[in-house]
Each structure stands twice: as C-alpha cells, then as structure tokens.
Amino acid sequence: MYIPKHFEENDLTEVASLIKEFGFATLVSTANGLPRATHIPLELVIDKDGAWKLHGHMARANPQWRDFADQADVLVIFMGPDSYVSPSWYDHKNVPTWNYKAVHLSGKAHTIEGEALESMLRAMMHRYESAHAEKPLVYEEVPRDLLDMDLRALVGIEIIVEKIEAASKLSQNRNEASYESIIGHLKKSDAYDSKRIAEEMEKKRLMTPTPPEGGLNT
Asked: Which pLDDT score is estimated for 208?
C-alpha cells in the first residue's frame, strides 16, 4: 500500500482496534495470474507470542478457497471510516482530497475444517451476537442438523499475517487553522462517516501535533 510518511499508522494497538471494529474485509488472492476477491468478516487473533492471525470462512461453492491449498499469498483489506474533504475548508486555495483509515495485511492462507472450523465459528458467533443482538443466540442453540448442513457448505480459513501496513490519512499535513476548519465542517456534515473522521482527527491531534502546511494530498 502506498502510504506517504505523514499518514503512516505505526501504532499496532490502533491498527488492531480498527480491524476489530471494522471486521468486514476484502480477501484478495490470485488464480492464473488474475486477482479475485471475496468480502467476508475476518476475526483477528493475536497469540501469546504476538503473532497475528485472521480467522474466517467462505462458501465451499466459492472457488477462491482452492487458491489456499498450498499456503497461498493473500492480501486482506480492512477499510475504516472515510470522508471527502473540501478545499473550501482550508485557509488558502488548494485541491480536494479524501481522509480515511485503512489496513492492509499480507500473509499465507490455508483452509481449516472439522473441530477447528467449529471452534472458529463458535467464537465469531459469540462476538457478533453479543455485540448486536438483544437476546444473543449461542452456537449450541442452533439445531445440530442445520449446523451439520451449513458446515458441509463452508470452508474455514486461517491467514498467518506476515506484513502489516496501515494508513491514517487525517489531514496531518495541514496547518492548525485548516485542521480546525476541517474538523468543524466534518462535524456539521451529514455525509457518511464525516463525524467519525472528525473524531479521529481530534484524537490524532492529541497524539501528534499538526505540522506546518505541506503539499501531500493523497
């Protein structure tokens, strides 16, 4: 991923937090020299030695899982919040841009079946049911015949992460007046994610003072 120096995100705690919040990812692999992608939820697991892994599953009918038979190289993209930034919000004339947060994880993928797959599904269901359902349903409450049918139709995936790249493009290259103005306009906007980007900019400013105006826009 191309990341200008201003926008590199090197805080692994922040990176892990984004992955856990925006867990619906794009999984990219190649077959016969051509890219193919699937959009699936992936769960980040960090083991006791600090190694990063991603767990997920896809339909057996999806041919992409066959790419993983020989420990295939894959790219996983997690997109966080994003928002348009108008140059009319700066204290000088400039060009439009876009603020966003994103993570790319590269590594080796392989398939998982049997009890390891069930354990993965149990953990994922617990996480999302607990977060979204008023009366969470636990894995063991799903009728066994239905589970068995679904398990036959799924393939589990584990990705051993080898490279972590993350960008937090939050107008760090703007001067203080422009930075404040961007936050103010984003807070007033009803555009998707604008208020969240404003919050991220405020948080980033507490961590890193805004530098003098620079020329980077993308």
From this structure: 64
> Residue for token digits 């051993």?
160
Are 213 and 178 contacting, i.e. CB atoms less than 8 angstroms apart?
yes
Q: For the residues 159-167, what does the mean pLDDT come to?
A: 98
DSSP bridge partners of 164 = 105
SS (H, E, C) 146-211: HHHHHHHCEEEEEEEEEEEEEEEECCCCCCHHHHHHHHHHHHHCCCCCHHHHHHHHHHHHHHCCCC
- The pair of structure tokens assigned to 111 is 């398939």
DSSP 32: T
Structural domain count of the chain: 1
pLDDT confidence of residue 206: 76
What's the rounded mean pLDDT across residues 191-202? 96
pLDDT band at 209 (very low <50, low <70, confident <90, very high): low
Task: Provide the 8-state DSSP code for 130.
Answer: H
Structural domain span for residue 70: 5-87+98-173
Closest CA to 84 of 203, 193, 199, 214: 193
In this structure, is residue 125 part of a structural domain?
A: yes
